[in-house]
Amino acid sequence: MEIPSEYKVNKYITLCLIEGKTMIFINGKKFRQCKYLFIVNPQSDFASNVKSIDDAAEMLDSHIEESYTPEDLGITEKEIFWGHCSNLQAWAESGYDTRLLHSNLAFPLLKKLTESGDIQASRVFKEEIVSRFLKGSTLTRQYLCEENYIQLLQEEELTAIMKASSAHAIKLIEERLEKKLNVTLWKTSNRGSAYKWEEGMIIELKLNGEFRFKEIPNEVQEF
């Protein structure tokens, strides 16, 4: 049976096989390429330790994909395409559970779907940011910080990952600075105006440039 070279996941997402590459289209516009296909045997000991595709990627040897080509494994381009279609279909049917895709695909895709008017994506986008930041691996948290997804959270949403007083202080500072603060799990030295998050606490704050405070706000003093 001939495997089709175009697959419609839902009204927003379509996958196309173009010159051997699986491309994602959102509302008919090219979004990005699906580069990696993770297939995990659910009966293996490895699978029992995997809570997300991010976990699988971290646990697997980073050189595997460099050492083996699809041809080495006897997998055709159309079979890889169908694997991506199956993964995206399962992701959509799960309500866009970001654990089922790698973060570097799941969150940009969810953001684009939200911007494109997908109601389900809009409903879960920020919930997924908070959930994966709290329950994901360190690398997942780092990704959400470095790609500025935490900056998208409103004050009420920030209270899920820090004290309410800290969330209020962050939004107060951003309002006065007229820009968003960067978030980091490591040092703030190379992140511009930023704060360091650790175990639900803001343990470091760095502000660059001029800001409109006559005195340090009480909320900041309570960090």
Provide an overview of this structure:
This protein is 42% helix and 16% strand. By secondary structure, it is of the alpha+beta class. The strands form 2 sheets. A 4-stranded antiparallel β-sheet has the order 1-2-3-4. A 3-stranded mixed β-sheet has the order 5-6-7. Helix 5 (103-115) runs antiparallel to helix 6 (119-135) and helix 6 (119-135) crosses helix 7. The chain is elongated and about 65 Å long. It starts with 5 loop residues before the first strand and ends with a helix. The mean pLDDT is 85.
Task: Work out the number of β strands.
Answer: 7
Total helical segments: 10
For the biggest β-sheet, the strand order reads 1-2-3-4
Number of domains: 2
What is the overall shape? elongated
Largest sheet: 4 strands, antiparallel
Mean pLDDT: 85
